[in-house]
Amino acid sequence: MTEGERTQPLGITDDEQGWVSRINETAKTVRMWRDWAKSAQRAQVGSDLDLDRLVGLDVESAAWNSIASSIEHLGFFADVIHATGAMYPTAYMTVARTAFMGAVNAHYLLAPEKRTKRQERALNMRAQELKDQVNKIKELSRMPAGVTLNTQGALDHATKQIELLRGPAQTLGKADPVYLSFNQTNAVTAVATYMRKLSNSDTLELALASIWRDGSAAAHAQQQYLFSRSKQGTVIASDPRGTVVSMRGELGADAGPAFLGSFAVLNDALRLYNLRRLKH
Prior knowledge:
Blueprint: E1 2-6, E2 10-11, H1 17-37, H2 48-52, H3 59-84, E3 86-87, H4 91-110, H5 115-140, H6 151-171, H7 184-199, H8 202-219, H9 223-230, E4 235-239, E5 242-246, H10 251-277
Parallel strand pairs: 1-5
Antiparallel strand pairs: 2-3, 4-5
Helix pairs in contact: 1-3, 1-10, 3-4, 3-10, 4-7, 4-8, 4-10, 5-6, 7-8, 8-10
């Protein structure tokens, strides 16, 4: 017998109201961050982030963009659950995943004490982004006749950005940027380990790794994740060909911890950002 799924939002249960309260309380801080982020929080002259800057490579900009994305997605998560009072099977996890990735990447860039380590991580991240962009542009260049896209201009711009990275790569004794790469899973692992040491909690380390894995499964609509949601649903129809069930996420089992875990990483990333942007 096969299972079919029907994704739809269901109301928050009484048992989940405690999680809603925790999210709403945490959202107050997220909104403060959102207001704070509206003004440019530039690095002070002579600060770590100011001195991290190389021609063609800006650690501060990379970290700030990741922080801003994480704040946006955490705010969106909290706004939606407050406005709708509905529990979506997978959507909250995909939003939390992006919030988590933004927080992780900012933290990963800012955590090292050594300047060269921060620069190397930013170099790898930027090189990967530009290579991904070049591949996307090349795919767009194969659009059918009649569709006008300035792919050559975009390709020239990306190529120029890669060329600018060659200076920092040479300064840091690294390979040509076209051969550099960034591994997201390695970044998640490094940040999870850092947070475990900070909190002295093995549980937190495992929870952060779970956010990454479950969030990715939800974002890619993987069957094992969808079927795990169906266990919480009800049978809509059943016949010899199979069963159709409604799915329901569990606020206390995935979306809630994913929100609070992402918040915890972002909170520490902001601590590191302020530490690095201020001259001491």
